[in-house]
Structure prediction request, 452 residues.
Amino acid sequence: MAVDTVTMDQIVSLSRRRGFVFPSSEIYGGMGSTYDYGHYGVLLKNNIRQRWFEAMVLERDDIVALDSAVILHPRVWEASGHVEGFTDPLVDCRTCKLRFRADKLEDSQCGRKPSKHPGEFSECDLTEPRQFNLMFQTTVGPVEDSGSRAFLRPETAQGIFINFKNVLQLARRRPPFGIAQIGRSFRNEITPGNFLFRVREFEQMEMEFFVPPADSEGWYHYWIDERLGWYLRYGLRRSRLRVREHGPEERSHYSQGTSDIEYEYPIGWSELEGVANRGDFDLMRHTEFSTTKLEYVGPDGDRYVPHVIEPAVSLERIIVAMLVDAYDEEVVGERERTVLRLHPEIAPVTAAILPLIAKGEGMVAKARTLYEELRKRHSVEYDDNGAIGRRYRRQDEIGTPWAFTIDDQTLSDDTVTVRDRDSLAQERLPIGGVRAWLDDALERDWQTPKGA
Ligand code: GAP
Prediction:
């Protein structure tokens, strides 16, 4: 019986217990809403990043990759509108000294106990809202003056726009074509929180798709469908995903149309990924501010400024959605188990190799040989520590789809047991066929047993 509602606390606790994610700087008392990734978190992130890169770049002929700098020329952020407009309204409470987003008071907790929304206590003393720019500032070079002021990028997109000409010329592209980038972005969020959902440092995966202006509406819908399909391909339940179109008042300054792909997180329906029709805003602004023409000139001399469709998401939001969707608890043979039903191509470890007896000489030799063979191509883990039941449960909790057990029978007939994480079914196969079996298993479609 699958658990239907998962709390953020369950996800935070599992992430910590199994070494996916740790609160950062803990030995110094912590650094609120900042996280470090442990071994399984890194493997999970790598898999999600790689699946995105395959779908957005490697499996396509019309998209190329880019890796631009984090600190760009400060004029980039003037042109993009971020210096002027990348702000949230902020209020301070003179009593509890906390800061809140003026437009999110309903979602915020006052510093007093029992906690209420800011403004609900008679002692609450809120300032008038003022605009607060979310970009982190830094200085470049040894002297701190106004000329050395620079910003940590709040989105990777601008690094793509300022390289438009390079890609157009050097990669000899013509619209429609895209440029994809994965990299850290930084935002001085006023109210970060909900685990990794809103953090100040996150890894964005963005793709700017440049199209002839007349085709932009069609491509906008195309990319909404493509991205929704990607989440379904990697196992998120359809019932927990929806597309919500922004009203005109909600759109960013650059947007002609935006749709959020939302996931039903424990905090309710919230933005997982945004797909925006940015029109020609960015290329026009960078043309104006840099005086470099950013346009497409066709072989017959026809010229236009392409419009841009942008799917943008962070690894952090995907990680939370995938962990929530995968988390399950069930009772098996009177024992409770917690299991992460992650898609096999997302799970941090693809297979575990478990010799039944840690010191059984023949078993260890066969298990190590199998482990060395599989680890050349897959993320596999060798575990000989503790009772077999405990080892299975450890692997269930990190979401390992298959475990191969080497036992007495292996010594006589060279077969191993494979145990399936989801169904708990076990079957025997020849040890020599494990590699091919695993390759086949990874090719098969996977549906979560948690339902649609
Ligand atoms: N280039 C467009 C852009 O950055 P956005 O809606 O501000 O648009 C895109 O951000 C995506 O980046 C969001 O859908 C979300 O997945 C992720 N994101 C934004 N702010 C975030 C934060 N503080 N923490 C984690 N992820 C964030």
